[in-house]
Amino acid sequence: MTRKIKEIMTAAPVTVPRLASVRDAARWMRDSAIGDVLVSDGAPGDGRLCGLVTDRDLVVVRVLAAGRDPDSTNVGDICSAEPVSVAPDDDVGRAVDLMRRHSLRRLPVLDDGRAVGVVSIGDLAIERDPDSGLADISAAAPNR
């Protein structure tokens, strides 16, 4: 029997408004022990998804290494707009295929355009290869 995304995803993802500062997004990531936040067009936890920001985006790709100010840069300006996503009732295999084709580590889970979860490469490792090193790392308690 094929499992569904809703069975393995992390529910209730952290969302931030697109006008939030990069520094605020970094704090949300730190405080929630996560490596990404979803960017919405409304208040935190509300609104439609308009992008995704990862810890790597903040440090290596789009902010610090690029010389941008984390206090004056909005997440909406640096997020990956229109991210590839899956639906809660999609098969887990669809997430694997999309991650492989697009070289992604995380996928937002959308229900009628609203973020209801995130599925990560670690979630898939735990599901598909629970004895792997990646599954062990992904299942471990977060560093704080």
Explain what this protein looks like in three dimensions.
It is a single chain. The chain is α+β, with helices and mostly antiparallel strands and 144 residues long. It has a single domain, classed as CBS-domain, CATH 3.10.580.10. The strands form two sheets. Strands 2-3-4-5 form a four-stranded mixed beta sheet. Strands 1-7-6 form a three-stranded antiparallel beta sheet. It has helices at 5-8, 22-32, 55-61, 75-78, 92-102, 121-128, 133-139, and strands spanning 10-11, 15-17, 36-40, 49-54, 80-81, 106-111, 114-120. Helices cover 36% and strands 22% of the residues. It starts with a helix and ends in a 5-residue tail after the last helix. The longest helix has 11 residues, at 22-32. Helix 6 packs across helix 7. It is globular, with a radius of gyration of 15 Å.
Q: Based on DSSP secondary structure assignment, what is the total number of beta strands?
A: 7
Task: Count helical runs.
Answer: 7
Structural class designation? alpha+beta
Q: How do the SSEs run, as a string of H and E?
A: HEEHEEHHEHEEHH
Distance between the termini: 37 Å
Largest sheet: number of strands, sense, barrel closure? 4 strands, mixed
Task: State mean pLDDT (0 to 100 scale).
Answer: 86
